[in-house]
Amino acid sequence: MSPERNSVIVDLDDTLCATKRAIIARANRTSLDTRYNYQMLRPGYVYDPHLDEIIHQTLKDPSFNPPPFIGALDGVKLLNENGFNVYIVSSRIAKYLGEATERWIGIRGFRPHIADLRLRPDGQRSRGFKLIIAQEVGAMAAFEDEVQAAKELASQVDHVFLIRRPWNTNFSNIDHPSISIHPSFLRAVSTFLKEQ
What we know:
By secondary structure, the chain is α/β, with parallel strands linked by helices. It folds into two domains: 7-18 and 67-195, 3-Layer(aba) Sandwich (Rossmann fold), CATH 3.40.50.1000; 19-60, no CATH class. The chain has helices spanning 19-30, 49-60, 72-81, 94-107, 129-137, 147-153, 185-195, and strands at residues 7-11, 85-93, 116-120, 139-144, 159-163, 179-182. The relative contact order is 0.18.
C-alpha cells in the first residue's frame, strides 16, 4: 500500500446505516392505501408524493436514528486501525440533512474513526457525486450498496466492494473485474484487508 493511496470511501445509507429499511417501515405505518417496498425507492420508479414526503420528513427528523448494520462500526474501526483514511460519503444534501447526518455519525460512534463525512452540496446532481469525492481524496477502494454507483466508482478506484442488499440482488449486468459482491460490509472490509 503506497502512503498516498490509503483512502477509502464508504457509502452511508444502506452500506452502514439501515436507512431504506427504516424509511419503508415508517412509510407503511403512515399509509392506508399503499404497501411500500424496497423497489419503490429505486431511481426511475414511479413517483409517489407520499413516499417522497416520508423520505424527506424521516431524514430531517431529529429522532430518526436507525441502527447501523451489524458489523458496520467494527468494519470502519478495522479500516482506521489498519491505517486507512475512511471517508463516509452520502448523496444526502448537506444544506438540508447535514446536521441530522452528523448527529447519526456521532451517536452511533463512527466520528472518531473517520477522516471526514462528505455530503452532496445543494445543486449538485447525485449521479457522479461519489466519483468526484473518490477523485478528490484519491480513494483506492469504495464500499457501496447501489449497483449503478459501484459501476461509476469502478472507473476511479482499484476495487469496489458491492454490498448485497434486498434491492440489488440481480448482478447479471455486472461485468467489471474491479467490482466484487459481498454479503456484508464487515466481510467486504475483511476481504479488502487481506488483499493489502
